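debug: dumping io for the single-chain case to check the tokenizer round-trip. Nothing else runs in this session.
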Amino acid sequence: MGVEYRLNRLFNAQSGRCLNIAVDHGLFGEPSFLAGIEDMPRAIASLIDARPDAIQLTPGQAPLLQSVAGREKPALALRTDVANVYGRPRDSYLYNRHFPDAVEQAVRLDAACVVVNLLDLPGEPEVRERCIAAIMELRVACARYAMPLMIEPLVMRNEPRGGGYDVDGDPEKIVALVRQARELGADVIKADPTNPITEFHRVVQAAGGAPVLVRGGGKVDDDELLRRTDSLLAEGAAGLVYGRNVVQHRSPASITRALMAMLHEGLPWAGALELAAP
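debug: decoded output
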């Protein structure tokens, strides 16, 4: 009991949905992730003005959001771990490290939830084991402080041309990892779209009643993004966690307003496409 009080700040009271803008990319040390967020104070100020439901930040950058006065600013989703799985070529040693006092920091920062990886990498079971161990510890602390736990089950595949990893949209793999996340105690799940999207309802089912937010992934054009969003919402997604498709947009405020209209007002993708134009 008690996690619902913070979840009430994360999810819109009328629609029951959430738009969480991920701006935690700088934590991972990948140069290509920094486009659009080189100037973090400016980026966060712009997003606050666009008023998504939440902004996902790291402990080091969260004060840019939480120091802003007023009641209307977005909720804070606090990233609690850092991995090196995104580089190309990939490192010879892979890790996922967790802040040791993550939930205590989240309480001090007045976060609405904490976010943690559950990584499934081909041929690297020890990385998944370390994620599970960290989640088990985090779950204990979350229960103590009534802090909602958002788990990010991330199924990867080898990307031979670039020598790194890419997202694996296999529905069977995603469903199994999402189910594991729920078994580990996820209050909210952040998952990749399935390929095809028409299988995403199985991910929602596997979450066992925990709301499922869809991960945005790499940058695509507005038409593709909004069409895909429309399809995922029809499959039962409870919201979105979009990063580069917002912060690298020519007008982050415009695309945020378009996505918010889809989520909370039921605007079809074609109407949202008009709103996305700056």
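debug: round-trip ok. DSSP finds eleven helices and eleven strands in the chain.
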